[in-house]
Structure prediction request, 256 residues.
Amino acid sequence: YRATSGNWFVTNNCSAPSFSRTKDMGATWTDLSGQFRIPQVEAIRKDAAANLYAQTCRSGAYEKSTDGGQSWADLIISDGGPVLVKNLATRPDGFILAIGANDNLYRSFDNGVNWSSIQSPQISTSLINDRVYIDGNGTCYYVAYFGQYYRSVNNGDSWQALNFYHPFYYVEPAFHPNGDIYAGDLSIGYHYYANLDSTGYIEVPGTQFLDFYHFHCTNGGTVFFTGFDHGAGGAEILFRIPNGSGIPEQLPFSPI
Prediction:
């Protein structure tokens, strides 16, 4: 996760939980795990009311903090009974999109005070392993576990299936300000072109057998991504694509 200050934060998975920060583009890292009561955090979100949401390994669902992270409780949606939240996305205007543990898709327009169930684009399969995202333009995305992407420009009232297929459990997608999407599935980097509704591949000259690990798009349109080059003696590499187009540039990078 890249903060507006330019600092990067990294969380590890549940097998070896940690939470770290870098202020110098990855040259050095500070382990912040000790500042968490339970540092088993896989994702962090913040809504327009400054509430924090953390997906934890403890419950396999999201917890909510209303006091800046000093205390936490399970995020519950009341829908004929308490419903844990398996995945969610927030927007600066107070809109939240969430997938419940009961296989329902929900939305809230008031920072989670009130929730309503809406139709999911995936109507024939379980939803609890799917993901929802909201890009910097406020557009909603729904991604099925096996890779089909859907887009909604009306807060989930209707969904459009995109000509883009990517299993997010390898590499999380990143959304460009122009509507493009960047993602990878280890050995292949994908670039979805929104204006063409088509998908291309990211070519990185000078590398061999590159595994794509993480993508990030800035508000200005620059794309960052990391990879592991098996052909360079096992080196982790940081790249930048200015304005989201052109040949990737390698940057100095020293991992933990």
In short: The two ends are 16 Å apart (CA to CA). The mean pLDDT is 84. The CA atoms of residues 99 and 105 lie 5 Å apart.
